Structure of EAL domain-containing protein:
Amino acid sequence: RSKAAGRNQLTFFESGMQEAAMRRLKLTSELRRAQADDQLELHFQPIIDVENGSVCKAEALLRWRRPGGALALPAEFVGIAEETGLIHEIGNWVFREAAAWSQRWSGMLGRPFQVSINKSPVQFQPHARAMDWVSYLDASGLAHNSIAVEITEGLLLNLTDEVFDKLHELQRGGMEVSIDDFGTGYSSMTYLKRLDIDYLKIDRSFVSEMMHDRTSQTITETIIVMAHKLGLKVIAEGVESAEQRDWLAAQHCDYLQGFLFGQPLLPAEFEQLLAGQPFLMAPPHRLQSPS
Ligand code: C2E
Ligand code: MG
Ligand code: MG
Ligand code: MG
C-alpha cells in the first residue's frame, strides 16, 4: 500500500515539475521573441533633488508589454532572463535605451540629466558578446555621467577581480555607481573601502517603516550620516508620504524617489512631467512642518 501511495505521490510530484518546466520553456521563448518584437519598455521614475525640489534624475525600470496588453513587472521575468542568459541582450538594450533618453532630456533641459539603470549580477559574468558601454557613450557623444549603474550588495559579497575590474572600467569611463537596496543584502561593508561608490540607495523597507519603527528610523539616519562621512550621496527609495519626505529632508538626505513624487512613467509621460512640472517639492526652507 505504502509503495503504491509512494508511486502516486511521485507521479503527482513529477507532473507538477513537468508543468513548471513547460511554463518556463514557454516563457523563455516568449521573452526571446519579446525583444525582437519590441515588447520591452522602459518606464522612468523621477528622482528629486532635496536641495531645490527639482526632478534631477530618473531610474529606468523594465517592463514587458505582453501581446494582449498586460504589463509584466521585472519580478515576473527578470529571473528567467538571468537563468537563460537573455539578460545580457536585454541589459544592453536597457543601457542603449536609457542612454538615448538621457541624451534627449539633457538636450531638452540644457543640463546633464542622469538616468540610472539596474544591472544584474549575471551581467558581470564573462559573456562572449559583451557590449562595450564606455565606447558606446563615446561614439554617441554623451556625457559619461549621463548613466548611473545600480548594483546590489549581493554582487559585492564576493568581490572577485573580475567584478572589480568591470566596475572600475565603468567608472573610468565616467559612469556613476549606486548600491541599490542598501542595508538589505548579505554583505559586509568592506567593499566601500575598495570601490569608489557614488550613491547609496536606502531600501524602501526602511523608509516605509521609519515613521513608526524606531529601529528603521535609526538605520535610515545612520546610513545617511555614514554615507556623508564617506563622501557618498544618499537616495531614499519608496517615499510615499509628506511626513517621510520632510523627515528625510531634515536629515539631509540628498535625493528622494517614490510614489509621492511619481510612479514609473512611460517616456512621453515622464517627458511631460520634466517639461511642465519640474518642481515637485518645495526647497527645504519652504517646507511646511507636518500638521
Ligand atoms: P529597484 O531597483 O529597487 O526599483 C525600485 C522598485 O520599487 C520598482 O519596482 C519601483 O516601481 C518600486 N517603487 C518605487 N517607488 C515606490 C514606492 O513609493 N512604493 C512602492 N511600493 N514601490 C515603489 P519594479 O519596477 O517592479 O522593479 C523591481 C525590481 O526589478 C527593481 O528594484 C530592480 O531590482 C529590478 N529591475 C527593474 N528594471 C530592471 C532592469 O532593467 N534590469 C534588471 N536587471 N533589473 C531590473
Ligand atoms: Mg534600482
Ligand atoms: Mg532599489
Ligand atoms: Mg528596493
